[in-house]
């Protein structure tokens, strides 16, 4: 009542302003009251997240791959046979390798690197001994990636007439010799214990080496008979040299005695220090122990 009593003493303009302010205040109060009732009438959330009390996944969780970082749920490791030369990223990740380790495998293969035996996989950058021991039993290297010298010699089926011809072919007598680097498959078969399969293996390995510098290299061919060695003679004249300061990494690693890491070490040395003058300059590299240097030296030209 006092409010209306004071309004009677106010000027007309002041009364109008005061009444307008009162109307605005009342309207605002009504709006706030009505909106509050609407929100209060909204039913509580139902569903798996509300009932279980687990916070609803956020967009950040979705970007992390479908699970929260702290919940401890990661894809289970599934060990299975694999070839590191052909395995895809899905298989490699399923073996428990980290994504950056898989990237290193892909980079190695893109540069022409080949895993020729299970032990080569142990050189994967960042691979721990525990990981290698766990994966080694499952490594399967395809025969296509193994050295040709490890191929088993196939047994040939020959007709009776051919067998008789071979049985009566003229073999070398004790004390007779043939030139290992100049003989073709026909002449090689004159050596006692050497048939067509071994003769082809000798020629193929000789071509890959660039020639033999020692008769004992024949024993690097799987199953080659040691009793045949006395019938061969070799000379350095038939050995093709590698121009070690000019060949590329890919060209160097084509030689049976040079793997990818050795070829890369040679190229890195040339890039950092200039041309090689002796393989002994690489003796501090773990890929060039003394026995490897001695075996490779006859094939190197500076």
UniProtKB/TrEMBL annotation:
Domain of life: Bacteria
GO biological process: protein secretion by the type II secretion system
Pfam families, alphabetized: HHH_3
Coiled coil: none
GO CC list: type II protein secretion system complex
SUPFAM superfamilies tied to this protein: RuvA domain 2-like (SSF47781)
InterPro entries: Endo/Exo/Phosphatase_dom_1 (IPR051675), RuvA_2-like (IPR010994)
Protein name as it appears in the record: ComEA protein
Species of provenance: Segatella buccae
